[in-house]
Structure formats: structure tokens, C-alpha cells
Design a protein that fits this description.
The complex is a heterotrimer of chains A (305), B (322) and C (328).
Chain A lengths: L3 H7 L3 H7 L3 H10 L1 H23 L33 H37 L1 H16 L2 H12 L3 H11 L2 H15 L2 H8 L4 H40 L7 H10 L8 H34 L3
Chain B lengths: L2 H28 L4 H7 L5 H11 L5 H13 L13 H36 L4 H14 L3 H15 L17 H39 L2 H8 L4 H38 L5 H10 L3 H29 L7
Helix pairs in contact in B: 1-4, 1-12, 5-6, 5-8, 5-10, 5-12, 6-8, 7-8, 7-10, 8-10, 9-10, 10-11, 10-12, 11-12
Chain C lengths: L3 E12 L2 E13 L4 E5 L6 H7 L8 E10 L2 E2 L5 H7 L4 E4 L3 H4 L6 H12 L5 H14 L16 H12 L6 E5 L7 H17 L3 E6 L2 H7 L2 E6 L2 E7 H5 L11 H8 L7 H7 L34 E5 L2 E4 L1 H4 L4
Parallel strand pairs in C: 3-8, 3-9, 6-7, 7-8
Antiparallel strand pairs in C: 1-2, 1-4, 4-5, 9-10, 10-12, 11-12
The chains are: A mainly alpha (305), B mainly alpha (322), C alpha/beta (328).
Amino acid sequence: MSNLDDTAGELRDPEFDDVASRPHRGIWKSLWHDPMGRSGLIMLGFVLVVIMIGPLIFPFDAQSFGTSAASILQAPSRAHWMGTTELGQDVFRQFLVGGRISLYVGLSATLIAIVLGAGLGLISGYYAGWRDTVLMRITDFFLVLPTLPLIIVLAALFGQSILVTSLVIGLTSWPQTARIIRSQVLSLRERPLVQRVRSLGAGDLRIMRKHILPNVAPLIFANLALVLSGAVLAQAALAFLGLGDPVQVSWGTTLHNAFNSGAMSQGAWWYVMTPGVGIVVMVLAFSLVGHSLDRVLNPLLRGEQ
Amino acid sequence: MSVRYLAKKLTTLVVTLYVTVSFNFLLFHVLPGSPIQLLARSGHYDPAARAQLVKLFGLNHSLFTQYFIYLKNMLHGDLGFSYVFRKPVTTVLGGAIGNTLLLVGTATLVTILVGVWLGVMAASRAHSLTDASITVTSLGLWSMPDFFTGMILIFICGVWTHILPISGLVTPGLVTGPWGHFVDVARHLVLPALTLTFVNAAEFSLISRNTLVDVMVEDYMLTARAKGLRRRTIVWRHALRNAMLPIVTATALYVGMILGGAIQVETVFSWPGMGLLIYNSVVQRDYPVLEGCFLLFAIAVIATNFISDLLYQVLDPRVRRT
Amino acid sequence: MSLLEIDNLSVDYRVGSGSLRAVDHVSLRVEPGEAVGIVGESGCGKTSLGLSIPMLLPGNAEISSGSITLADHELVGMSEDQLNQLRWSAVAFVFQGAMNALNPVQRVDRQILEAITAHEAKADKHEATERVLQLLDLVGISPARAKSFPHEFSGGMRQRAMIAMALACRPSLLIADEPTTALDVISQAQILALLSSLRRSEDLSVLMISHDLSAIKRVCDRIIVMYAGVIVESGRTEEVLGRRGEPAQAAHPYTQALIGAHPDLHGERVLAQGLPGHPPDLSKPIAGCRFADRCPYAMPVCREVVPPTLAISAGHIAACHLLSKGAS
């Protein structure tokens, strides 16, 4: 126990260390061993390959329209694997491009939500006291506000670019994360090791970086997957209601077009099912990974074996 | 339930409502790009209507005064005037609330019953094949956007088989007695309610299952088994009764989600409720109606949370005070 | 004919990919009207042994060998329906931690009534309600408090209510698992006195599981000492633990250590300090005596050969190599 830096490393608290020292590789491994986690990862890999590589092989030209009445709302064929739209565009190619937009918006919204949620949760849980009270009142208020209606209102007011959509979803999806992170941080700061390091005079930032953040990181990660699935769903709903970016066609936008063009009454199931199944698979992949991570991490975080 | 607790909760309720109303003001009246600000400056708006608007919201006054005029209007139940319907927003909302209540109420009721039942099935056979399949099915259903589920049902029950109506509240032009009307509405209700139930029952069964699994390992569950009670008695009387507490809290939190689903479902099935109103007011840029709908949704969720807090007090003897 | 006969009972827990033997070939008997105490540190298998009798082991545990006979019924392999009939009417349980053993959202009288109606389908509602009040009266709870919720009782009262509930179906065997843990000293004394008097007035056999030697001394005729899943010593309580004026005649070093580490009233903390080291890891095979690593008298033979169980006097047995040489 010579100087502070050594001390922090030397103080060994088995319960605390259990989580801290566990390599993140272990989490991936247990995720892979969980049937739910494995199917989620496989689905996720599949989706990523399709929407990242797909458009390179089957490029989509937004300006190419069907030239004759016969090319409109065609059922799947060899020329058009997933049929055509009411404008005679290829559904499959549009699907490949649309997935990128859905994922892009989902990811950027999630990034905003997680940074906000985890940040507020950390501050709230670590400092406790009045900061906690104020932040949690705000969090509770946003937790209670109906999210999708709020997103719709914001999107209606502030426009329909993918930037606005990402911002709007991100700014409304953080409260749950803040709550979860806060309660974990609250219990972490009471752990003997943190108490001891603090009594030895370590700074707040240092304690947060060295002792709190590494322990909530897996939790943030599990939450990220769940927020992502919610964000993709929210983006789809927004686009379906006509509040998506009209230029950057996402899966939700395709469904909006399918619904509003009357394609459904003509029985054009391929037009609806293709982007719809895309959304379901992407959301399911994220939520499977999220739930599985939650299951893998929870006993760990509770200190059970 | 103590008077003090009730007073505390009522205070929270009032404060939350006040904050919500103010938040609403901020969204629709203050933020740059908010409709009132845009309208006040826009030149091509009908001068008479614009003058009325300026008067109604006190746009020629300071923001502070506008806020008080807004609060006063709220207290008088004046939510403004719809550009599209050319009627007070309250009148427009009044025509839609009942339909949304019918849809959301039916769906919530079925959701709770089916969700809890599935949760019990999964939890009482925790880690079995039944459990796994209920969990995976629930996750799958949860991953479906409400509007997509609705579209699939339209294909199956409407486009391909014509067994159920897929649009509206009643069959246009149908002349029948009260019973015939009831049956007609009920038939129109089936698909939208079913859609809303699918997604939410999935979520609900997961919550119920996890809560029940936690309850199952409590000491009193071992006591119940040791007493030689039948499995069904143990699960329904001892486990579920204790699991109800977190489930009630969860229900309140999910009302917001159910309302979000209602917007999509009402749009897909042209169900003339507040969700369809939101969709139409977005498309037609009828901001006063959008504002009114949002406010009403927020109040509904806040009120539900308040009720669930009180219900929790009644259900849990440990916090109950006589 | 013994009331309870356990022969060669082994209980295995599935842990991860392996398994852990919590109870290893244990045999014991409880005679009608007798009170037997099982003592040992936490994790020695005493609770698993208790739970296995009415087949209440958790899902990841199974009885891998042996038999349990209660009043001539073989319980191992019995159907769940048959077991449900015997549970509470033949063997009732008083659980550890009265805090949570009662359902927190059900009134106490309902919980007791429920036990009666579950076993006596034809029970008259009035008579059954009457009996609930009598039972509460028997354990010293005023009928006026019958309609309370568990959280409205003190810890001691909850444990009394639990005992009243255990007596509801007039069982012949009462298993009490740590009945006094987590209670204050006065409540502990009262609960022990209550158990001692009830076993005589209600003609009960008692199997009491505890880490607390003084509790067992006060209630039980016979004591069984368990260590790491096996019985290391058993005999008359007075003989093993001693009696006023007479020294304890515990033969096994573990029992001696327990007594030595246990000068006063209660607490596992004292015990852990008195005995350095931990019990062995039961998921791995153990050669020789399980206590050898912590035993102050351990000899080379102790780590190689499982000690035989030897009779010391009538009804007093112990499993230790020291005894076979006749030295201690």
C-alpha cells in the first residue's frame, strides 16, 4: 500500500472483482453458448451481410421506373425476385438499399440515446443527492410521456430528414437506459472497494473511469441492443406514417408507399412482406442479442454464480 | 391508504400535469419552427384567420403573456381551432376519443388476460420447451411493427378471404337496428384489436413470465409446496397474487406503448379514433389537432400511472395503511 | 418400527456441467415422539437432507440413491399426488427465516386455513376456522391478531404462526430448519421452549436442523453431526454435548471443534473463527476423511482411507481413524 495507484489495484474484493476482471471475451463466449444469443448473432450477421454487400451486387436506381403498365406491381419473377412496385421499381433492390437507411437511423438514434442515458445515469447514480433527485424527476417525466406520439410530434414539427429522425428518436429513447445504469451505479458506489478508494482520496473522474464504467459497460452494451431494436421499430413506424425521409427510402418508407398506393387491395403481398420481414428480422436479431446479454449478465451483476 | 400518501401522489400528479402542459407549450408555441411561430410570421395565411389566431394565442404579446393566455385557455378546456375541420379542437377530439377507448380498452383487456396466462404457462414450466417456445414466439411478435402485423392481417382476413372488414368503424350505408349496429362495429373491431393485442400480449407475457420466475423461488412458494397444495393453487393463488404487483406497475408503463401502437393500427384500419386523427393532422399539417391529441395521450398515460400507484397500495398489504 | 427411516440417501445437484453430492449415503432414524437434531456448518447438506424428506428439493437436485420411509410409506419415487397427500398431514415443515416463509399478501389465518382445507376436503368451514384460532392460541398468538398480514407480526410471532400452521394437519413428524435463525435472543428462547412443550403435548417427532448447538441441546434427545455431506457422529445429546456437571463426550474432532468454538449462545461467526479453513469442494472426489484438511489430529491414513463408523457406546457412533486405534 505504497501509493494510491498501487492501492487501487491491490485492494481485492472478490465480489467486486468477479465482474470487473471478467474479460469481455467471456461475455461473447457465453452469448454464443446461449441458444437465444447465438440465433440473434447469426441473424444479425446475415442481415449485415445482405444490406452491406447486397446493394453492391444489385444496385438500385431510384430514377428507373417501369415503362409499361405490365411492369407495374409484378409478382416475383426471375427478372424481379421480389416483384415490382406501383412505379415498376424492383422491390428486392429497393429492399437492399432501404435496409441501410433503417440500420443507419437506428444506429445513430441509439448512439444518442445511449450516450445521454448512460451519461445521466452515471451522474445521477454516482453523485446521488440533489443531482440525482433533479435528474430522476426529469427522467421520470420523459419515461411517462408516450414515446411514439412524442416522436411523431417532433418529426412533424422539425422535418423529415434522416438526421431529424435520428435526433428525435435518440432524444426520446434514453430514460430507460438512464434508470437502469443509475441503479447499477448506485449499488457499485456502495461497494467496499469504491468506498475505500474514495476514502483514499481518488478523484471522482478517476473512480468513474476506473471502477464504475468498466462495471456498467456490459450493462450498457446489453441495453444498447434493446434500445437499437426499439429505435429501428420507431423509425419504421415514423416512415410508415409518412414522416420518413422522402428521398432516402427506408423499409418503413417502402411500406408507406405500398400501403398508400393501394397495392394491398391488388394483392401485392411481395411489396409488403419484403420490407416488413426485413424489419422483423433486424429487430428480432437485436432483441435476441439484447435479451440474451441481459440473461448472461444479470446473474453476473447480481454476484451469483 | 394514508391521507398523506394520497396527498403526496395527488401533488405529484398535479405537478406532472402542469409540466406536461408547459412542455406542450414549449413544443408547439416557443421552439423555432413550431407551428404557431411559423403561422404568426407566414404571409400567405388567410388574414382573418391569422388575426383570430393572434388574438387567441396573444401572439402580439410577450412570450410570458402568451404562456399565461395558453394556461388560461387550457383551464377553460380550450385547445384551439382546427384548420382542417373548422371546428374547435375539443369538438374534433370528442368525436374520436370514444372510438380509441373502445379499441385500446378491448385490446388492453385481452392483452392482460392472454399475456398473463401465457406468462403463467411459461413460468410454471420454466426452462422447459413450452417456456422456450412461448418466449421465442413472444420475442418474434414483439419484433413486428404494429402496422406490419395489421397489414398481414388485412391480407389474410380481408384481401384473400374476405372474412372480416378491414377498414372503418361501420359498414358504409348499412341500415340496421341497434343489435345489427353492435355486431357490425364488433366485426370491424376484431382485426385492429387483434393487431394491437398481438404485439402487446407478447411483451406482457415476457414481463409476467420473468416476474413469476422471480416469485417462484421465494420462500413462501416452498412453504406452499410443503403444504401439499396442488400445482395450480400454488401458481395462481400464491405466485400470481405476488407477481401482480410488478405487473400492475408494468401495465401502466406500457399504456404509452399501446397508444403508440394505436396510432399505427388506427391508420392501417382507418379506425376513426385519435390515432387516425394524429395521422391525418400530420399529413394535413393541422397542428392544433396534433397538439390536442398529444396532450390528451400524455394526460392519459399520466393518469394511468397515478391509478396504478393507488392500485399498488391496495394490492400490497405491506405498503397499505388503514 | 421407526417413524422415519432414511437409508443410504444421496442427493446430487447439477452444477454447470458437473454435479455435486450434497448428501452422501446418509442413514438415520427418527422414532415416534423422538426429537433429533442435525448440526453442521452451512453447506454440509443438512438442509438438503431435510428438504429431501417430503421431496421438496429444488429442480436441479435429485435423489441419486437410497430410500426414505415415513410411517411405512416409501417416499422416493412416489407420485406427486400421493406426496401432496402426505405433505403437511404426515410431515410438516417450519422453515428458516420466518420473514419470507409466509405469503406476504395473504392473511395469516387464511394461510393456516388453506392447509386444513387442502387436506380435509370435507372439513366444516366453521370447525376449521375454529381450529385455526385454537392453533394460534396454542402457540401464544391472540385470536384477535389472526387476521393480520405477516409483516404486521414480529419475527418471533411469524415463527409462532409458522409453527401453528405446521400443526394444522396434526402431522406425526415436524421438520424445523433453522427455526431460530434471525430471531432475537428472547424470541429464540421462546420458540425453543414452545417446540419442546409442543413435541410432548402434541405427540410429535421433531427433526431439527440447525447450526446452533445450544438450540439442539435444548430441544433434542439425539444429535447427528454432519460434515461435507456425511454423518460424522451421532449419539444422545446429553452424552455428546455434555450435561450440567458432566463433560461433553464428543468423539469426533469436528464435533469437539464445534463445541469448542461454541462457548456461548449462537452464531455461525464464532464457529467459523474457531475452525480455520473451509469444507472441501464436493464436486470433486475426496479420498479419505473429509475433515482431514482442517483436523488438528490428522494422520497420513486420514487422507487415504475413508474412516469407518465405530460404536463408542450404546447409540453413540463416530467416524474417525483416531477411534480405531483407541487413542484420542
